[in-house]
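Lab meeting, action items carried over

1. Structure of the two-component assembly. Owner: GW. Status: complete.
Input record:
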Amino acid sequence: MNDYAIELSGVCKSYRFFNLQNIALRLQRGTTMGLIGPNGAGKSTTIRILMGLVHQDRGEVNVLGHCMPQEQVDAKWDIGFASDDMRLYETMTLGWHINFMKSMYPSWDDAYAHLLLKRFGLRAEQKIKGISHGQRVKAALLLVFARRPKLLVLDEPTTGLDPVARHEILRELTSVMVDEGRSVLFSSHNTQDVEQISDQITFIDRGRIIDSMDKEIYLDRWRRLRLEVPDGVALPRLPGVIGIQKTGRLAVAIANAFESHLPNAYENTGARVHAVENMTLEEIFVANVEHSREEVNA
Amino acid sequence: MKTNVILQLILKDWRLQSRMIILLTLAGAAALAFLPIGGKAIVIGTVFFFVAMMFCACLLPMQNIVNERKKQTLPFIMSLPVSSARYGAAKLISTTGMFLTSWLALLGAALFMILVRHTVPNGAIPMGMILMGFPLIGFCLVTGAALIGESEGWATGALAITNSSYWLVWFILVSHVPSLMQNSSSPVAVWSPAVFKILSVEFGIILLTLGLTMFLQSRKRNFI
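Predicted assembly:
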C-alpha cells in the first residue's frame, strides 16, 4: 500500500488568467496538512484537481492509491469533501440529507451522526433554508464526518464563521483526527485554524507551492531578530536570513533557517541583537509569500 | 457492498421534483376537462393542455439541472462517488424520465378523451401526436443546453429558441402538408406516410439531441 494519502507531482493547469505550475505535494497517511495561500493562490484549483473535478493538463495525481481523474469514482468512496461554496438542498431538511447519505454509504455511522447533531446544536427536521450560515457549514461537515472517510479534504470550511462556530468545528475536526488512519487536507487563508490542527504546512501563492514542511520545523526555523545597527556598520544578509528591514538605527532580520550562532554572527558585524523572537504561522506565511514574490520578480 | 450511485441520484431527483411534476400533470389533465364542453372550450382546453406541457418542458431542466449549479448544490453532489459522465447520465435519465412520465400520462389522458369520451374526432390523433412531439423536442434541447452549457444563459437561450419555434414549425408543416388539418376532423385517424415521416423526424431529433448531450458530457475536463 502506498504510504501517501495524496501524491501530486508535476501538476500543471492553465486557464486564461491563471496557471497552476508544477505542483508537487505529498500527504502521508494519518497526518493533517494545512494548505495556506492568499485568495486566488490556487488552493481550490489544486483541491478540485485532486478530487477529479478538474482535469490537470500535465502531471500525476494519486489519491488513496487511485490515479485521478480516471479512478475518481473508486477514490471518492473514501474521501470526505467539503468546501465553502458547497450548499445543501434548501427546500429539504437536514434529516432528508442524512437519509440520502445513509442510502449512499454503507460506512455511514448513524450513532455518530446523532451525536454530531447534538454537539453542533442542529435539528434533523430543520429545513436548510431556515438555518444560519454557520449551521449550514456544520450540517455539511456532519454529512462528511459521519461517513467515516479515510481522507478528509476541506476547502476553507471555516470561512465566514463566527469564533464560536469555528471553535466547535475545529474541536470536532481534532477529535475526528484521533483516528490515526485518517488523513486530512485542510485549506484556508486563516493561519490560526491551520496552526491549530495541522502536522504539515504547505504554502501556495500565485499557482506555485512556495514551501512545504512539518509545522514544528517551520515554527522552529523561522525567527525574527531585532537589531540595533550603529552608524557606519553595514548589515550583511547572513546565510539563513531572507530579508532585512531597516528603519534608522533599528533593523529587523527575518531568518527562515535560524541557527543558534546567528545572533553571534550579527554581533560580530558590529550590530547589537536586542531580541530573538519566535514568529506566528501568519507572520511566517506573509514573510514567505513576500520573499517568494521578490524572488520571482528578481 | 457499494451502492448504485446513479440510481440513488435519480431517486434523489424524483424526490426533489415530484411535487412540481404532479402539479403540472394535473394542470394538463384539468385542461382536458374543457373538451367535453365543446365549441370554444375545446380550443381553450387544448391551448392550456399544451401550455402545461411546455411549462413542464421548460421548468424541469431549469429546476433539476440549472438550479443545481446556480444554487451551488453541485459541489455537494460531485463530492459523492460519481464522475461527470455518470452525473450527466443520472441527470439525463432522471430529467427525461420525469418529463416522459408526465408526457405519457397526459398523452394517455388525451387519448382517453378522444377514444373513450369521443370529445373530439379520432382524426385529431395524428395531428395531436405530432404536436405533442414539439414540447418533447423542446425539452430535450433545453435539457442538453442546460447540461452541456453549464449556465442559465445557455438554457434560457435554448428555451427562447424552442418556444418561439413551435408556431413557426407548425405553420411550415401545415403549409406543406395541408392534409394534416383536413384529416383532423375525420371520424377515423388517418396515418398517412407524411404523418409517419414527420413523427420519424421528431423521433430522430430527440435521439440525436440526447445522444449528443451524453457524448459531450462524457468529454468534459472541467466540471466545477
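2. GW to write a short summary for the group page. Key points so far: DSSP finds eight helices and no strands in chain B. The two ends of chain B are 29 Å apart (CA to CA).
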